[in-house]
Design goal:
This protein has a single domain, classed as Cysteine proteinases (Cathepsin B, Chain A, Alpha-Beta Complex), CATH 3.90.70. It is 33% helix and 22% strand. A hairpin with a 6-residue loop joins strand 1 and strand 2. It is built from 10 helices and 16 strands. It has 364 residues and is of the alpha+beta class. The longest helix is centred in the N-terminal third of the chain and has 18 residues. The strands form 3 sheets. Strands 1, 2, 5, 6, 7, 8, 9, 10, 13, 14, 15 and 16 form a 12-stranded mixed beta sheet that branches. A two-stranded antiparallel sheet has the order 3-4. The protein is globular, with a radius of gyration of 21 Å.
Amino acid sequence: MKNILAPLILSFLFVSSFAQEKETNQFTTIYDIETTAVKSQGKTGTCWSFSASSFIESEIFRKTNVLVNISEMYSVRNTYEKKAENYILRQGKAQFSEGSLAHDVMNTINENGLVPEVTYSGGITNVNMHDHAELFATLDTLVNNYIKTPKEQSESWSNATNTVLDTYFGEEPEVFTYNNKQFTPKSFQSEMKINPDDYVSLTSYTHHPYYETFILEIPDNFSNGSFYNLPLDEYINTIEHALNKGYSIVLDTDVSEKTFSSKTGMANLPKDGVARKEKVVTSENRQEEFLNYNTTDDHLMHITGLLKDQHGNKFYKVKNSWGTNNKGNEGFVYMSIPYMQMKSISILLHKDGISEEIKGKLKL
């Protein structure tokens, strides 16, 4: 077990592809929140479930002092079902893809509960490496065939969808045993003390009023989730405040920048090609990057800590879901504050991780 606030010195060789300079960086841990081991999402677009599930695992530890591996694929399976229904009811005029958002995991927990990984791995075709290429192609064909010829087909599309999902994921457990105790998914959720109503999504954009909620206009928000809108400085300050109080965070961010590297385990925003000198980010240039599609919602990860380098610069410790092979920092990415300011789309966290001042402004 890690001591959440214990100082730890970390070092690695960081090669800047821009300045082509080598420097051994030393990082001191400021906050380090307990989490499970880094996993791999394999050949799937399910980072949203891996990040949110990792977050839930840390939440369970915070509440119960017990680490539990939660089934990512239980949420994925139930979300695919919802996405298929949404796509068909909207006559194909909606997003149908492998992608979703963190609040979709909360939605499935609210409706279906939680199950541990050992009960439902969701990988009956390959338990060691998730690969959804064939699964998604089958679902895509199914829903689009229905849309093309709705009058020639019955409402059995729902049964057909569930048959496909059961074939690839396995049937969902109604009752299971964990640590010699019998549970249903809902009773297990209760045992783990996870209440989806306790979690909120925050963002920071200028095309909607601050301190109000709006439906964030990104393709993977198929379920029309609402986000509280904060000024950029309060949005960033909320992240550190939560970490300081022992609350981890789900992050939705753009990872298409050349300066985001899972190989080196670093993400920063260099100015003029100098790794240690980063761009100044404002709400205006953040908004511009969003509107011109330079910032898109590529990937979700789990913020579990905060560090500082030998120059005093702060970096978020972000748990990825791309495994640990050939990955810097053992599968974690150290993300600079300017990168977070510019490239993060949104965050999800427990509302108690937000300061009383901000909760008052948001009327939480």
